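Continuing the series of single-chain predictions for the mutant panel. This is the parent chain; the variants come on the following pages.
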Amino acid sequence: MTVSLDDAIAASTHPRLLTAEFLTICSPRIRRFWDYWNSKRGARPMPSRRDIEPTEIPDLLPYIVLTEVLREPPFLRYRLVGTKQVAVRGHDPTGEPVRGHYIGHHLGKEEGEVLLNYRIVIERHSLVYDYNSTIGPASDGGSFGIKPVLEKGTLLLPLSSDGQDVDMVFCCADIDMPDPVTPS
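Parent structure:
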């Protein structure tokens, strides 16, 4: 039996905002991502994938993920994963399902909460701002004990090719990580 979306949200204790109230606490990077998406949708409830022009947001590309919404399992598949997104996961999940490849999976973060974020975007055609910070793997990909990568907040937004059904989720995570140390 599938739990209704409203019941799933009510039962969740995961820190997320579902309104533009997130603009009062988000980082400048997340604000820029929102402003870009918002400018592309115009008077529509959501823009389409073809409205997104990567050359207009080169500074955001490392932080962006495009997730395809499928009608059959695995239902959600990563189509584009920026370099900072790859680094925080410790591997490149492009072409892989969201299950088992989302930020925080290495820490045993609740998969249901991640999938609920997507479900909200898809069913309500609305934003989800997830501010549950996640620490990632070491920059060498080795130890999870040393965690210099920090995901500080994530904004998920809907995209629709027909203006009615969400077929892509456009996501930006504000990821802070040190530059690699180069030997002298």
